[in-house]
Amino acid sequence: MDTSQLTPGALQGLRVIEMGQLIAGPFAGKTLGDFGAEVIKIEPPGVGDPLRSWRLLDEGGTSVWWQVQSRNKRSIALDLRQAEGQDIARRLIAGADVLIENFRPGTLEGWGMSYEELAQLNPGLIMLRISGYGQTGPYRDLPGFGAIGEAMGGLRHLTGEPGRVPVRCGISIGDTLAALHGTIGVLTALYHRKVNGGRGQVIDVALHEAVFNVMESLLPEYSAFGAVREAAGSALPGIAPSNAYRCADGYVLIAGNGDSIFKRLMSTIGREDLGKDPALAGNAGRVARVAEIDAAIEAWSQALPIATVLELLGAAKVPAGKVYTARDIAEDPHYRAREMIQTQTTRDGASIEVPGVVPKLLGTPGSLRTPAPRLGEDTDAVLAELGLDAAQIGALHEKQVVA
Predict the structure, then answer these.
(1) How many independent structural domains does the chain possess?
(2) What are phi and psi of 367, to 5 degrees?
(3) Which stretches does DSSP call E strand in 102-156?
(4) How far apart are alpha carbons 283 and 314 in whole angstroms?
């Protein structure tokens, strides 16, 4: 991959040590790496990060998900169960700005790498810790994955159809939300370190808290009114009209809940009577008659193909959209015009399309500089940068401390 023409990233010069695995911690590392940070990923020798073998695999037996999650990273295979491996990790962390880990609380402390111990080596260290329930509290030591965080955070209770089993949204959203909150924490702590004497700090992110933080008015409504929000399928409870509507060849989502938008929507579907009804001029009145409004919209949409519905609503400036599949995304010209689909060449020479970088910084944009590494591909180079000579590196290989 030719990186010679890339604009330096906003985080160029930032060194990150990633000790996490699977999704939450590594997604935070990916995000920082996309914007120029040097990310050194520590993996266990042998199989490495389990994500390498998750979901669909390429011809070389590597997950294509891995190609996205671990781009812009270097890999060192290091056995942290051995004292010499722990010592190498400390040396790496001593020269880093950020440490990311998503082990169960207490794991690093068991290796002699508590924040207090590491801060003695590196007072400016910023340590992102992502776990199921956080580093404190009565649930601290329980195992927790993103799915459990989604349940405890209140999200799973709202997903699915009323009266039916709660469903997941189809991706590991709890992990990703935790990673994004962790990334915000890292950037905030970096600013604080810059303006307040160079001291680092710990960022403690719990999976369920990251989910709970985006649950909008869920808790205030219970606190004020005793209202327990329930699952509502594709509708947005308390906001009308906003739902999925059947067309002749599928479904479209229509958000006609703005007061003026609602009038344009009703005009488009031939229901001027509803658009001019003073009782429906505001959201509260529309919510009271949402079933009637939804039925009127679907009576119009179900006789038309999706393309026609979108064309008519677009002309009326009513927000609407098709439910995209992966194929729809890959074929959409807007995705490509915005560079949200990019081609990446893997270490094995295969070409694969992957998501672009979000958000878009116009002055210092993120970029795909290097493909995801093979396991331990950068071990010897990283050790050499620490000052170890060939004989010392060879001895560590013989002891299987590194690979």
Answers:
(1) 2
(2) -160, 160
(3) 126-131
(4) 22
Strand partners, 342: 354
Instruction: Determine contact, residues 199/123, Cβ cutoff 8 Å.
Output: yes
In this structure, are residues 247 and 309 in contact, taking their beta carbons and an 8 Å threshold?
yes
**Residue of 34, 49, 79, 175 with catalytic role:** 175
Instruction: Write the CATH number for 349.
Output: 3.40.50.10540
Mean pLDDT by 10 residues, the chain (403 residues): 68 97 97 98 96 92 95 98 97 98 96 97 98 97 93 94 90 96 98 96 98 96 96 90 96 96 98 97 97 98 98 98 96 97 94 96 96 97 97 97 96
- Contact between 128 and 185 (Cβ < 8 Å): yes
Residue 328: active-site member = no
Element (H, E) at 334: helix 333-337
Same domain, 87 and 173: yes
Q: Give the pLDDT confidence score for residue 7 in this predicted structure.
A: 78
Give the pLDDT of residue 8.
84
The beta strand positions in 259-384, using DSSP E, are: 320-322, 341-345, 351-355
The domain in which residue 264 lies consists of 242-323
Q: How far apart are CA 287 and CA 239, in angstroms?
A: 6
Q: What residues contact residue 360 under an 8 Å CB cut-off, 6+ apart?
A: 338, 366
Residue 166 lies in a domain: yes
Residue 79's CB: how many other CB atoms inside 10 A?
A: 22
Separation of alpha carbons 305 and 245, rounded Å: 12
Pick the closest to residue 14 from 95, 85, 130 (CA basis).
95
Pairing label, strands 38-43, 15-18: parallel
pLDDT for the residue 1: 46
Is residue 81 situated within a structural domain? yes
371 shares its domain with 257: no
Backbone φ, ψ for residue 98 (5° rounding): -135, 140
Residues 28 and 179: beta-carbon distance below 8 Å: yes
353 and 296 both lie in a single domain: no
